[in-house]
Known about the structure:
This protein has about 100 residues and is mainly alpha-helical. The chain has a domain at about 25-90. It is built from 3 helices and 2 strands. It has helices spanning about 20-25, 45-50, 60-75; strands at about 30, 35-40. A two-stranded antiparallel sheet has the order 1-2. A hairpin with a 4-residue loop joins strand 1 and strand 2 (about 35-40). The chain starts with 18 loop residues before the first helix and ends in an 18-residue tail after the last helix.
Amino acid sequence: MSHSTWKFSPATPHGRLSTTHKAALPSSAFAFPRARKEPMTDASHVRDAMARFDQVGGVTDAERDLAFANLQTAARHFQIHMKETNWRQFGTASH
């Protein structure tokens, strides 16, 4: 299991992110930091990252492990309940 690298920054813009804002975010703001995919700057973005988790392409299982740990950390921060206990549960019929 990976350790989370996600960090909340109160200075991070919320709501819809422009390309410029997304490019300015630190890697620690993303579920997938190396690929810079799925920014998680507020509760809405965390929910979006959860909904699209299984659609992210071009990442390894190790990166998915890290992204899942990041999602768990961000979800706890924004008080979002996650029923998934493993990233492989995203996109399954039980989701």
